[in-house]
């Protein structure tokens, strides 16, 4: 019961925001229509139950006129049932896609907002494979929640409707034991209740491990798919290293885990199916066995017997909702747990950026430099990495940041960009200043080349002439003819070409501060120097801050700052010192 209450609370928390959102009117109307149709279908079932009594009595009495009339009645009821079923499915699917669109947009916004997706990876939270949670789990959650909710409502209404019918039939067909009537009010209801309790208890006992097994299966399947995608994304490096056999071994190992868990699901499902199938078959004949003594004692007619059996089956089916829907419930609970974990991971990433012991990135009015006060950057495990106090990156003064590998140079750039939360202190950035970070391997979205270059600006933010001029400036004029071509550019182009396109992106966006994290390291030194001169000439108002190891970069910058190590605690220079120092404690 505690698990049930917890699951219902989580489902309510995940589901209810949609019905309070800007799309709430459509959502509520569709949900109300689906529920109203379900209640109408139950009402038709009650009418069909009463019809059975009259129909089978007409057969027993050879009443042709009544028989024909009842055939017409059944056709009307059947037609109504078909129309309502069709529109219930249609409206249900309509509600599903509107709900899914809203939840997907909310999850995408929360996941991508403020670098939450990056902080979630830094924390190593259990929200693995967010692509699956947004694409698959949201869809399954909505489908299963509606299916289970409508099914449960139908069972409750069916139970309430047919209990009254069955109670009355119990009085009309009293229990017969050894040829004598035994007065037990509503005995058919009590028999159906005991039968359902017995089935539910055994189903829970047999099938309870399926919840965790289904959860694990989803995780293992997603992990296998993720690694398949990684092989595809890194196929060139794998081919160059002749790593196909190693990759096949690793993929086979991961798929082996999928298979092993599936075998456990198969074994448990076999036991559960053996019981539920027998349980369902037994209920077909069970009500006739219970009512047969009264029929052969001639206390009820054939129509009464058939109506009783039908009412008993409906009551038992309603009471056995848990039995019939157990596998769906197990899948549903696993899906709910995954979405709950995803939401908690996002919340954790959001809270991480606002915790007191984090780097505070502020927008400073009236300043023309990026300044650091009492800054201490740490690794996710809490170990100190870089400290800086009184250090500034002055406007229009290009700066080269050097130091040993693992000193934390890239982490410093991440902190300035506002995505590295571990640490303390203040980084002040001039108000309205536009910063751009170019890593060693730039990112290009799959699509048209022009959209890849202008990213993250819209496709039409720059004219074709502007993009072509930028391509010519970085030494790629031949690409001008392919601006409309769609491709996976990170795979199609060499790293040197990608870095040139990254510089072209910077020329288009013209940021106030351009941070180059070894963004030209794959180019030869003359090409690298040429690109720096292009940046200096075409972006005279841009302050360039670089990370690099080549000595040739020294002459391309006004200022050089070297990270030096002094144990795990460091003393740093002040603003007045021309060569302010950094200190590092390990980690790139």
Assign a percent range to the helix content: 55-70%
- CATH class of the largest domain reads Mainly Alpha
The total of helices stands at 18
Residue fraction in strands:
5-15%
Radius of gyration: 35 Å
Task: State the CATH topology of the largest domain.
Answer: ABC transporter transmembrane region fold
CATH architectural designation of the largest domain: Up-down Bundle
Low-confidence stretches: 569-588
- Beta-strand segment tally: 15
Question: In the CATH hierarchy, what is the superfamily of the largest domain?
Answer: ABC transporter type 1, transmembrane domain
- Biggest β-sheet: count, sense, barrel? 11 strands, mixed
Give the overall silhouette. elongated
Query: Between the first and last Cα atoms, what is the distance in angstroms?
Result: 49 Å
């Amino acid at each position: 019961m505690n698990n049930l209450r917890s699951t219902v609370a989580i489902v309510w928390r995940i589901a209810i925001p949609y019905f309070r959102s800007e799309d709430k009117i459509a959502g509520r109307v569709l949900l109300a229509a689906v529920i109203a149709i379900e209640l109408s279908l139950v009402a038709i079932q009650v009418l069909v139950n009463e019809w059975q009594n009259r129909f089978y009595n007409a057969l027993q009495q050879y009443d042709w006129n009544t028989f024909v009339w009842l055939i017409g009645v059944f056709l009307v009821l059947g037609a109504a049932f078909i129309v309502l079923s069709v529109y219930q499915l249609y409206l249900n699917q309509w509600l599903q896609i509107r709900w899914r669109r809203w939840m997907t947009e909310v999850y995408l916004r929360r996941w991508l907002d403020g670098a939450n997706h990056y902080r979630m990876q830094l924390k190593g939270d259990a929200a693995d494979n967010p692509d699956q949670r947004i694409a698959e789990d949201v869809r399954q959650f909505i489908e299963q929640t509606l299916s289970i909710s409508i099914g449960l409502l139908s069972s409750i209404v069916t139970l309430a409707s047919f209990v009254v019918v069955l109670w009355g039939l119990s009085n009309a067909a009293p229990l017969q034991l050894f040829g004598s009537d035994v007065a037990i009010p509503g005995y058919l209801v009590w028999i159906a209740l005991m039968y359902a309790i017995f089935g539910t208890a055994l189903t829970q006992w047999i099938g309870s491990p399926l919840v965790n097994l289904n959860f694990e299966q989803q995780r293992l399947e997603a992990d296998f798919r993720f690694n398949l995608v990684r092989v595809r994304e890194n196929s060139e490096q794998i081919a160059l290293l002749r790593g196909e056999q190693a990759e096949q071994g690793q993929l086979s190992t991961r798929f082996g885990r999928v298979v092993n868990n599936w075998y456990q699901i198969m074994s448990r499902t076999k036991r559960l199916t053996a019981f539920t199938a027998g349980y369902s078959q037994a209920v077909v004949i069970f009500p006739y066995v219970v009512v047969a003594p009264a029929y052969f004692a001639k206390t009820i007619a054939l129509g009464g017997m058939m109506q009783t059996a039908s009412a008993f089956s409906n009551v038992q089916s309603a009471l056995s909702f848990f039995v019939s829907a157990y596998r769906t419930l197990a899948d549903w609970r696993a899906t709910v747990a995954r979405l709950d974990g995803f939401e908690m991971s996002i919340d954790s990433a959001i809270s991480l950026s606002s915790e007191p012991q984090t780097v505070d990135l502020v927008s400073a009015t009236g300043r023309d430099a990026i300044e650091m006060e009492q800054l201490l950057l740490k690794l996710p495990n809490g170990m100190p990495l870089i400290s800086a106090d009184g250090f500034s990156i002055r406007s229009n003064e290009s700066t080269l940041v050097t130091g040993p590998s693992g000193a934390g140079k890239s982490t410093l750039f991440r902190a300035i960009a506002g995505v590295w939360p571990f640490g303390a202190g203040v980084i002040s950035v001039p108000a309205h200043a536009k910063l751009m970070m170019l890593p060693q391997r730039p990112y290009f979205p799959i699509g048209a080349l022009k959209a890849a270059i202008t990213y993250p600006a819209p496709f039409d933010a720059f004219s074709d002439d502007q993009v072509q001029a930028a391509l010519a400036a970085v030494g790629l004029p031949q690409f001008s003819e392919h601006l409309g071509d769609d491709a996976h550019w990170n795979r199609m182009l060499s790293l040197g070409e990608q870095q040139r396109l990254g510089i072209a992106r910077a020329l288009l966006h013209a940021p106030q501060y351009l941070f180059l994290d070894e963004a030209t390291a794959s180019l030869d030194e003359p090409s690298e120097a040429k690109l720096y001169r292009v940046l200096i000439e075409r972006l005279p108002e841009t302050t360039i801050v670089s990370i690099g190891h080549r000595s040739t970069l020294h002459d391309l910058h006004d200022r050089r700052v070297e990270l030096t190590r002094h144990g795990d605690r460091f003393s740093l220079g002040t603003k007045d010192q021309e060569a302010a120092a950094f200190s590092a404690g390990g980690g790139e």
